[in-house]
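Sequence design from tokenized structure. All designs in this work follow the same two-part layout: the structure record, then the generated sequence. An example of the structure record is given first.
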């Protein structure tokens, strides 16, 4: 049953001169974790970019949480978190700016999870203004990162 799967890929193909990703099919059940392992040039990045609709596929289909990754791209991406090799954010982006950007992209963005460890409570504005907690204006922020389907 498709709703029991986080991702269903059927016959996904993409060809370049000298390389072809041919009829890849796989299913990822909800609650599972999948890793792509293989030699350079095996098609790992191409497959991920096709899943994210960052490349135009030649044929096949991708469904994320029961939704077509092209026809319902916005809804899919609102529920999907991905970290590629490099984040490629400008060096001028601090924690507050990153938080603001991400909350504008993801309707379910959780600021407390981004800034603080699980189980802790975000300080009040008064506590921040008293200097009891950093405001993340001029320093890099180490946040909890995850890749999530759901």
């Amino acid at each position: 049953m498709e709703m029991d799967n986080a991702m269903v890929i059927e016959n996904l193909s993409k060809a370049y001169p000298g390389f072809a990703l041919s009829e890849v099919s796989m299913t990822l059940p909800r609650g599972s974790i999948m890793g792509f392992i293989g030699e350079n040039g095996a098609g790992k990045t191409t497959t991920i970019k096709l899943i994210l609709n960052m490349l135009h596929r030649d044929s096949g289909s991708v469904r994320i949480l029961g939704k077509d990754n092209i026809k319902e791209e916005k809804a899919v991406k609102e529920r999907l978190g991905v970290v590629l090799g490099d984040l490629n954010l400008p060096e001028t982006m601090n924690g507050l700016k990153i938080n603001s950007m991400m909350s504008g992209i993801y309707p379910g963005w959780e600021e407390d999870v981004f800034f603080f460890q699980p189980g802790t409570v975000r300080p009040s504005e008064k506590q921040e203004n008293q200097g009891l907690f950093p405001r993340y204006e001029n320093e890099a922020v180490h946040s909890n990162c995850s890749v999530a389907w759901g």
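The chain has a mean pLDDT of 78. We note this feature because it recurs in several other targets discussed in the main text.
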